[in-house]
């Protein structure tokens, strides 16, 4: 199996080679008489359709049309290539018309969201494996709920066993919100442990006033707090992995529609090359 | 205490369907059912399990993740005993994304349809502002015929397979480049091939038409220079890729041009002999101080023409006209027989000859042609016998009689016949002479003097012709229209003396006699006339300054203007003299026009071949390259070359 670095090097070299080949082709055969705009436009359209096919491939699991991971590799590098072709297509200039500006913004946003998504998918999993338990994103709300129930059960048991409501009051006043929903997402975006430390200091300060039996329960409660904090971290980062697609995918469809109209306008008002 | 939240053992792990649009509403509480919601997002679960029957017993099938088999077991009818409250399914992540995609597609589609069908479509779909040269165009349909139609027509047009050329035809409504507008350089292929031999890549030599849009793309803002065309466009047909790669101009193979100047003017004889002596002392008050004293750029800034004869030459050369000698146009030829021998009325002391102009006038008379047909030497009248002499006398008398009766019309009719010409109502000619020239020549003839000469030389002519006195001359006072020369009636001849430059009679005679005539008799005569007019013995030798070019073996062209380029005419190569000399010292002319040490300037005109030329100056391409070579990357082809070599007419 090819190592990640080797694969990246190979694909990058292919990308550079194809870019240079296309540029050479454009210089010697495509540039005269504004053929470059037409040809680069068609190359761009082909690339975008190929990029779009990736989402189709993901929906078709039965047909033997290559591994999804291979398609993803192609999607990533073809996306970068399409950005270069796009720059050539616009002659490295900003468009001047309203519709063409809109089209350019659509392409740029789609490409940029794709690049950001690619960066997320490279960086975030590394952070996720380093901290906490690996959990499925869709199950996080259930696990969060489970932790909340465990915490509440623990506090109730403590109250019953120690005849003291100190821990229960502490939970009610300071922790019920924390267990209720994902907490402090901005801290988790930066991977910060700051809020956990704050909770820990507050918890330790509170524990000084508890008896030994209550302290046992308090220790267990803090383990649940730590678990919940890690779970929130996973939820925040995995949300990032999911949400960039909320920009990339809808924009792709809008881009395809706008491109179709652009193509129609070009051939209606400019015509075919001789 | 180690807390593990997720168990991947199938018995304890619930069945998730993240690829479906809906999720169980109780998922967040960890009570997610196995069946899950349906595709419409409806909960379809009523019981915790669906029991199965084994050996007449109903067995609970509740999943281990939900607690395993229940203690109560199924009811007797096989229903699960644990009825569940239906949930309100929630959209999964994918479901939310799908919904967003649907709304995005719908919104985009709606926006596009709205603008395609609304009156705002011009503003919305316009690719940008027009260049300032087209800024006055308000309606898109001025250039795009399809614009005013519906969006469906746009789609049809897009699918129609029309070429760029089709859409460029609208440009020609305003920009007229002739019937070959879409051919390369706007020229017919054959014409282009003649003008640019071996300049085009062989595979492109028979190419195809070009659309305006191939080079000029609009809608890129008001400051766009539509004439700024990439070098690559030229390279499509012209073999300049190598030069482009090396950042060099292709070799100059036909520069400087080897074509003589229209006006014969030996710069260095004038400057070193007449204007200044070898010591540099000025000999003439009117001597020019620099090149720019005589040469000024025209309106286009391209041509550096001379100013005029009056400005540049008259001061020294007007004595040619002031002291010119007259030459005989009409004469009474000396005959081999005395008039008494012939028994004909003829001036006794006639000692003249048949002038060339008279021969042209007489050539249409059959009597004249009969009389001179057998002459071996060119109009040696001493060879004529009596009969032919009488015919000649008769034909000359016919000429004077006709002039007396019809006036200038007689001359015109005779010349038309002599030149074997016919003119239609539009003034188009069947020969090399045009009617305007002929009318001008006739208008310059001294009809009054000819009538007077007829009376003096042939006093009994009317009696001979038994004519009534309805003469033209008696009823008209016809004077020559020209003030640039004078007609003189001598005893037995009529002479003409040009007194000023730009003499229309001499010019017209030279122009008429420079072209081949179909009749052998007149052809020889017109050639003799032409040679006489350009010879050193001529009364005024126009050809001393105005060069004569041989168009072919029998046709010539006298170069009257100093340049035959008009200020609007475009050639393949353009050189803006004004741009190069502006803000420069006057000596900059010498950078490109250096003195040619070789003599032979005047000699190069003798064969009348315009391509045999030894210029006063030498020029090499280093003069261009010294400035332009290093900036080839910035310099476009059209800096020095024109694509459209005929001027666009708006």
Fraction of helical residues of chain B: 25-40%
Number of domains of chain A: 2
- The number of helical segments of chain B is 27
Query: Which stretches of chain A are low in confidence, meaning pLDDT under 50 for 5 or more residues running?
Result: none
Strand tally of chain A is: 0
Q: Please identify the oligomeric state.
A: heterodimer
Low-confidence stretches of chain B: none
Radius of gyration of chain A: 27 Å
Largest interface: A-B, 55 and 68 residues
How is this structure best summarized?
The mean pLDDT of chain A is 90. Chain A folds into 2 domains: 4-132 and 243-269, no CATH class; 137-237, no CATH class.
Keywords:
heterodimer, A: mainly alpha, 2 domains, 81% helix, B: mainly alpha, 3-stranded antiparallel β-sheet, two-stranded antiparallel ribbon
Description:
The complex is a heterodimer of chains A (274) and B (650). Chain A is built from 9 helices and no strands. In chain A, helix 1 (4-30) runs parallel beside helix 3, helix 2 (35-59) packs antiparallel against helix 3 and helix 6 packs parallel to helix 9. In chain A, 81% of the residues lie in helices and 0% in strands. Chain A is elongated and about 90 Å long. Chain A starts with a helix and ends in a 5-residue tail after the last helix. Chain A folds into 2 domains: 4-132 and 243-269, no CATH class; 137-237, no CATH class. Chain A has helices at 4-30, 35-59, 68-89, 98-130, 140-162, 166-180, 185-189, 194-207, 212-269. By secondary structure, chain A is mostly helical. The model of chain A has no long low-confidence stretch (mean pLDDT 90). Chain B has 650 residues and is mainly α. Chain B has 4 domains: 1-91, no CATH class; 126-246, no CATH class; 267-320 and 563-639, no CATH class; 326-529, no CATH class. Helix content of chain B is 32%, strand content 6%. In chain B, the strands form 6 sheets. In chain B, strands 7-9-8 form a 3-stranded antiparallel sheet. In chain B, a hairpin with a 6-residue loop joins strand 5 and strand 6. In chain B, helix 19 packs across helix 23 and helix 23 packs across helix 24 (520-534). Chain B is elongated and about 170 Å long. Chain B starts with 21 loop residues before the first strand and ends in a 22-residue tail after the last helix. The model of chain B has no long low-confidence stretch (mean pLDDT 83). At the A-B interface, helix 4, helix 5 and helix 9 of A face helix 1, helix 2, helix 3, helix 4 and helix 6 of B.
């Amino acid at each position: 199996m090819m190592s990640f670095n080797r694969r990246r090097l190979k694909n990058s070299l292919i990308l550079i080679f194809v870019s240079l080949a296309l540029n050479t082709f454009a210089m010697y055969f495509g540039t005269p008489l504004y053929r470059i705009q037409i040809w680069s436009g068609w190359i761009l359209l082909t690339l975008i359709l190929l990029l779009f096919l990736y989402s189709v491939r993901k929906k078709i699991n039965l047909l033997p049309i290559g591994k999804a991971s291979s398609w993803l590799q192609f999607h990533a590098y073809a996306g970068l290539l399409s950005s270069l072709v796009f720059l050539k297509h616009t002659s490295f200039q900003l468009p001047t018309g309203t519709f063409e500006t809109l089209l350019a913004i659509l392409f740029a946003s789609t490409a940029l969201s794709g690049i950001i998504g690619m960066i997320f998918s490279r960086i975030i999993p590394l952070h996720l494996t380093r901290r906490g338990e690996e959990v499925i994103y869709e199950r996080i709300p259930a696990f969060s709920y489970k932790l909340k129930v465990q915490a509440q059960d623990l506090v109730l048991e403590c109250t019953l066993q120690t005849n003291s409501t100190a821990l229960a009051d502490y939970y009610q006043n300071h922790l019920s919100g924390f267990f209720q929903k994902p907490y402090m997402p901005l801290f988790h975006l930066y991977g910060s442990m700051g809020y956990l430390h704050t909770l820990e200091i507050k918890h330790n300060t509170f524990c000084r006033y508890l008896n030994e039996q209550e302290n046992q329960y308090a220790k267990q409660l803090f383990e649940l707090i730590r678990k919940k904090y890690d779970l929130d971290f996973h939820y925040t980062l995995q949300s990032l992995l999911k949400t960039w697609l909320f920009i990339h995918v809808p924009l792709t469809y809008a881009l395809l529609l706008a491109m179709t109209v652009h193509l129609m306008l070009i051939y209606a008002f400019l015509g075919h090359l001789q | 205490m180690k807390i593990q939240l997720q168990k991947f053992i199938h018995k304890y792990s619930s069945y998730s369907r993240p690829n479906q649009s809906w999720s169980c509403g109780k998922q967040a509480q960890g009570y997610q059912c196995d069946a899950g919601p349906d595709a419409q997002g409806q909960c379809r679960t009523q019981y915790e399990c669906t029991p199965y029957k084994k050996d007449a017993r109903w067995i609970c099938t509740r999943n281990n993740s939900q607690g395993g088999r229940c203690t109560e077991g199924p009811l007797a009818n096989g229903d699960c005993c644990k009825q569940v409250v239906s949930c309100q399914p929630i959209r999964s992540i994918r479901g939310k994304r799908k919904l967003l995609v649907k709304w995005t597609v719908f919104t985009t589609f709606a926006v596009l349809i709205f603008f395609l069908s609304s009156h705002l479509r011009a503003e919305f779909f316009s690719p940008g502002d027009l260049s300032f040269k087209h800024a006055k165009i308000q309606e898109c349909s001025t250039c795009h015929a399809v614009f005013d139609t519906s969006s469906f027509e746009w789609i049809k047009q897009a699918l129609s397979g029309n070429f760029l050329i089709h859409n460029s035809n609208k440009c020609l409504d305003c920009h007229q480049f002739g019937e070959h507008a879409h051919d390369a350089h706007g020229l017919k292929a054959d014409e282009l091939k003649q003008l640019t031999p071996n300049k085009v890549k062989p595979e492109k030599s028979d190419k195809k038409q070009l659309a305006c849009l191939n080079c000029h793309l609009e809608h890129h803002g008001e400051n766009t220079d539509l004439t700024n065309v990439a070098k690559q466009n030229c390279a499509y047909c012209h073999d300049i890729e190598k030069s482009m790669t090396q950042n060099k101009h292709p070799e100059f193979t036909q520069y400087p041009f080897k074509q003589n100047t229209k006006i014969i003017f030996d710069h260095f004889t004038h400057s070193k002999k007449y204007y200044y002596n070898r010591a540099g002392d000025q000999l003439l008050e009117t001597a020019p101080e620099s090149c720019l004293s005589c040469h000024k750029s025209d309106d286009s800034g391209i041509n550096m023409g001379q100013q005029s004869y009056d400005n540049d030459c008259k001061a020294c050369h007007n004595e040619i006209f002031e002291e010119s000698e007259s030459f005989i146009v009409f004469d009474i030829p000396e005959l081999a027989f005395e008039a008494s021998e012939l028994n004909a009325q003829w001036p006794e002391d006639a000692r003249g000859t048949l002038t060339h102009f008279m021969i042209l006038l007489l050539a249409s008379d059959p009597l004249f042609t009969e009389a001179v047909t057998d002459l071996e030497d060119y109009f040696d009248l001493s060879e004529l016998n009596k009969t032919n002499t009488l015919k000649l006398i008769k034909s000359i008398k016919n000429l004077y009689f006709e002039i007396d009766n019809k006036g200038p019309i007689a001359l015109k009719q005779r010349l038309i016949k002599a030149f074997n010409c016919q003119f239609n109502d539009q003034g188009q000619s069947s020969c090399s002479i045009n009617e305007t020239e002929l009318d001008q020549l006739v208008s310059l003839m001294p009809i009054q003097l000819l009538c007077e000469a007829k009376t003096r030389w042939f006093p009994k002519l009317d009696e001979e012709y038994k004519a009534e006195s309805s003469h033209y001359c008696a009823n008209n006072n016809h004077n020559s229209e020209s003030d640039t020369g004078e007609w003189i009636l001598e005893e037995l001849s009529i002479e003409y003396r040009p007194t000023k430059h730009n003499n229309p009679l001499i010019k017209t005679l030279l122009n008429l006699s420079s072209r081949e005539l179909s009749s052998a008799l007149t052809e020889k005569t017109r050639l003799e006339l032409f040679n006489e007019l350009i010879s050193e013995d001529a009364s005024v030798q126009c050809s001393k300054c105005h060069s004569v070019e041989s168009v072919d073996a029998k046709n010539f062209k006298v170069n009257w203007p100093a340049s035959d380029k008009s200020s609007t005419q475009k050639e393949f190569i353009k050189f803006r003299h004004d741009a190069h000399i502006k803000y420069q010292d006057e000596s900059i002319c010498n950078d490109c026009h250096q003195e040619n040490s070789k003599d032979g300037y005047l000699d190069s005109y003798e064969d009348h071949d315009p391509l045999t030329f030894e210029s006063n100056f030498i020029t090499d391409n280093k003069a261009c390259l010294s400035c332009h070579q290093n900036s080839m990357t910035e310099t476009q082809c059209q800096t020095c070359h024109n694509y459209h070599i005929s001027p666009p007419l708006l």
